[in-house]
């Protein structure tokens, strides 16, 4: 894939660093007023100079300049030709799957986000698109799951909530040899820490609700891919309607500007917390690819520039201790979602991943998931330490 960037100086924006592009690509000062921030184009329609002519925009389901700015910036950051933004991450996933036809087949990771599995298993399966969950850390198992009708390998790395790391380059090769595409959910890593397109992914999907927006104040999704696929997705989006509103695009673009600095801090804080939990006898297991003892560590070092802000662990004392712990923290809010500046804690088995209970994707009921925020690390460590004492004591 080639980059198709423009930047305010009119020079080759691919030459610019990640955070420079996050702040500038698609975000030229407004030509009429000089406003340095892309305006919220809160309009449903656009006046046309003559019948059959328009200035680039006709109706806001089809396109909106605030959305265009976000799309151009995201495409640049993912190293993709184009991006299409949606009303949510699941709306983006729905559009990707609607590119297929009844009879097509998807091989997905066996610990994808619960909502992704629910959509595959309870929505698209009804329309004749079957999915097979498989442990994608086992490339032989992935190859064995292929059918002649397999169109997508659907990978999520690091995965939600077990933080498994998948070998994107190997999966892309495996898919391409069999005429399929690799779809990579890059929500947890973000393009700052991992570049799936450069590793061979054909489609990158995001819940921009998470780190891209970064402030827990907006729900959104995005797909980054080649121009032709983006055109097909934009057609579907216009035909079906899952568009993000201009204010949501504005908030997401504002968050995106600081993605790099936030991810650095999320990673530093998460590393300190994972190390503390790993050394704590009140904790039975820690999942964090930044820990040298983690099974995904070497792969993460090779394909990511940092392990990110998500940590999951299993306290001693089982599911009851996990529940008590989540109700005892003060700074870590008990809440679903992730990727905001504030720290969150949850029990995936009964919260974000409740929809996978009784399916092949079931997560351990004593697993606690942390979305480590950017607060002062000593405060976060003290909060967890106190909650662990109360929960396991
Ligand atoms: N992908 C991952 C990895 C997620 O964690 C989520 C939501 O938690 C989604 C996709 C779905 O995104 P949204 O909630 O924006 O629809």
What is the total domain count? 2
Quickly give the structural class. alpha/beta
Helix content: 25-40%
Average pLDDT for all residues = 95
Strand content: 5-15%
The rounded distance between the terminal residues' Cα atoms is 55 Å
Largest sheet: 7 strands, mixed
Number-wise, the strands total 12
* Assigned CATH architecture of the largest domain: 3-Layer(aba) Sandwich
Query: Rounded to an integer, what's the Rg over CA atoms?
Result: 21 Å
Low-confidence stretches: 1-12
List the helices and strands and how they pair.
Elements lengths: L17 H7 L40 H14 L3 E5 L2 H10 L6 E5 L4 H9 L7 E5 L4 H7 L4 E7 L11 H10 L3 E5 L4 H4 L9 E5 L13 E5 L1 H14 L5 H11 L2 H20 L4 E5 L9 H7 L6 E6 L2 H11 L4 E2 L9 E3 L21 E4 L5 H16 L1
Parallel strand pairs: 2-3, 2-4, 4-5, 5-6, 10-11
Antiparallel strand pairs: 1-7, 6-7, 8-9, 9-12, 11-12
Helix pairs in contact: 1-2, 2-9, 12-13
The structure holds pyridoxal-5'-phosphate.
Provide a concise account of the structure shown.
With 393 residues, the chain is of the alpha/beta class.
Could you describe the 3D structure shown?
This protein is of the alpha/beta class. It folds into two domains: 11-257, Type I PLP-dependent aspartate aminotransferase-like (Major domain) (Aspartate Aminotransferase, domain 2, 3-Layer(aba) Sandwich), CATH 3.40.640.10; 260-392, Aspartate Aminotransferase, domain 1 (Alpha-Beta Complex), CATH 3.90.1150.10. 36% of the residues lie in helices and 15% in strands. The chain has helices spanning 18-24, 65-78, 89-98, 114-122, 139-145, 168-177, 190-193, 227-240, 246-256, 259-278, 297-303, 318-328, 377-392; strands at residues 82-86, 105-109, 130-134, 150-156, 181-185, 203-207, 221-225, 283-287, 310-315, 333-334, 344-346, 368-371. The strands form two sheets. It has a seven-stranded mixed sheet with strand order 1-7-6-5-4-2-3, sandwiched between helices. The protein has a five-stranded mixed sheet with strand order 8-9-12-11-10. Bound molecules: pyridoxal-5'-phosphate. Pyridoxal-5'-phosphate is lined by residues 88-90, 113, 115-116, 156, 160, 185, 187-188, 207, 209, 219, 221.
